[in-house]
Amino acid sequence: MSEVAEVNSVAQPSREVAAVEVRDLRKEFVRRDKKAGRFARKRRAAIDGISFTMARGECVAILGQNGSGKSTLVRLLSTLLLHDGGSARVFGHDVFAEPRAVQKLVNRVSVEASFFKKMSAGENLHYAARFYGMAPKVTRVQIPEILSRVGFPVDRRTEPMENLSRGMQQKVALARALLTSPVLLLLDEPTTGLDPRSKLEVQQFIHEMRAKHDATILLCTHDLDEAEALADRIGILDRGELLMLEPAEDLKRRYGAETLEQAFFAATGRTFEDEAAEDDDEEREVFA
Amino acid sequence: MRAAALTMRHQLIGLGGVVERNVYLTRRYIWWDVAFMVWTIANTLTIVFIAKGIEATGGSIDVGRTTTTLLIGGVVWAYLGIIFEFLTETVAWERWEGTIEYTFMAPLSRAMHLGGSGVFAVLYGLIRATLLFIVVALFFGLSMPNANFVGALVLLLIASVSFFGIGMMTAVLPLISPEKGAQLGFVGQGMLLVVSGVYYPVSVLPGWMEWISTISPATYALRGIRAAILDGAGIAWADVWPLLVIGACSIPLGLWIFSIGERYAKKHGKLKRSG
């Protein structure tokens, strides 16, 4: 078996099980309660008993305001948080009891590109790939190929990350995710702050991940058009609760709305612009 | 069996990745490292000049021997500082750069992750400590005709296992307190050295501190290295076995403490860039 095939074969999940299965998942954080006294503490649910299932190869978009719990959901599924109730399984593996098995299957792209800024794109990718067991002789071949596929000029791969534009950095982030061949890709506002062209390139990448790599994608976003264009189903997450999860057309039909924004407003009673209007929401933004 | 071998191979590649990253970063910050080296040399000179100072103020001492004794203390202090610094920065640097979430969601065991930092810290620390020793020894024109440098190096390497285990315990601090955790690592380093006879024999310590010195690996490292360099002594089993025992205990204990800290961070949402 070749080394590349060997690396990729480690984490091939069964086709029979659901890609993601979340049941009554709950995550709370303890925060200061200024109103109740100097030393008072209160528990706030960032994720409040949500349930959903994703089939293999499906793309689900989760819409929600800042502080709605989108990032908490992504971090729970990434094994970066421990839950307070319910369960979450990725390709049959319990996220909290079998984190190592889940980690082999998952990768993510978040709003922040997050790299060692003095290191070059190539060095950052070599470093990230080692954690997934990819040896230098594999990454020396794969990294230029993958950078080229995400539209990153390969001759710039030796430049420090701090010299690259935000759009370029996000392409390297996509390459990092692609490099480890994840079967579940978690995208946490991957196009926020990008110019229209870079945004389009990220969206093309998401299409490619589904078409060529059979990846299942959970996309958390603010961008309603992006969600409608990319996702098979759209979920609305509001104050930690998943209000519904269905195809965009069904969502609009349910509320008699012409646009997804109208449907979002009808479902939550708020618009995207209303965010952090209440104290409770401001507090949510701190941890969700 | 084959799966276990493959998993171990992947884990070792991950360990190599941490070493590789530290090589990249050291190359990028090389002039800063030179500046810190100058600071370390100046700091060590300040300590080592004390021997000449005592003589100048009327004290009766063997200046050459005392100078070498202080120099060994200064070099071991600097070496331990590098080990602790690299291990503590395993978390602190990743948080600062924002890569912490990507690293902690990767399928790499924490032993290998921290091990990578430890291996690099030992290699880098040895280079820095050797340079420091040579520069200061040349500055004072120290003559060490009987010195057993190989024995001293072997003892420092054996002690490094224990230093690494204790370093893992301090590496967890930035996970618990993103703002002040890294600085608390220096407190650990200082506590370890004050009881280990870094610039004086442990016999001058109060009884309770002298007792604590028996569980500090730096005590045996300093004693053995001084005997090797000052008297040309070989590696004494009396120095080696405590280092082996402390090393065998401190690494599992360090990993266990780190795992508790990681669990705490995952429970309270501290495993992220902003803390």
Structure description:
- The complex is a heterodimer of chains A (288) and B (275).
- Chain A is α/β, with parallel strands linked by helices and 288 residues long.
- In chain A, 38% of the residues lie in helices and 24% in strands.
- Chain A has helices at residues 3-9, 70-77, 99-103, 121-130, 136-149, 166-179, 196-213, 224-230, 248-255, 260-268, 279-287; strands at 20-32, 41-54, 59-63, 85-90, 93-94, 106-110, 184-188, 216-221, 233-238, 241-246.
- Chain A has a 6-stranded mixed beta sheet with strand order 6-7-8-3-9-10, sandwiched between helices. A 4-stranded antiparallel beta sheet of chain A has the order 2-1-4-5.
- The longest helix of chain A is centred in the C-terminal third of the chain and has 18 residues, at 196-213.
- Chain A starts with a helix and ends with a helix.
- With 275 residues, chain B is mainly alpha-helical.
- Chain B has one domain (2-268).
- In chain B, 80% of the residues lie in helices and 0% in strands.
- Chain B contains 11 helices and no strands.
- The model of chain B has no long low-confidence stretch (mean pLDDT 91).
- Chains A and B meet through strand 6 and helix 4 of A and helix 1, helix 4 and helix 11 of B.
Question: Would you list the SSEs of chain B in sequence order as H and E?
Answer: HHHHHHHHHHH
Which class of the largest domain in chain A in CATH terms?
Answer: Alpha Beta
- What fraction, in percent, of the residue positions of chain B are helical? over 70%
Specify the structural class of chain A. Answer: alpha/beta
CATH domain topology of the largest domain in chain A: Rossmann fold
Query: How many structural domains can be distinguished in the coordinates of chain A?
Result: 2
Oligomer: heterodimer
Residue share in β-strands of chain A:
15-25%
Helical segment count of chain B? 11
Order of secondary-structure elements of chain A: HEEEHEEHEHHHEHEHEEHHH
Number of strands of chain B: 0
The overall pLDDT of chain A, averaged over residues, is 86
Strand content range of chain B: under 5%
Q: How confident overall, as mean pLDDT of chain B?
A: 91
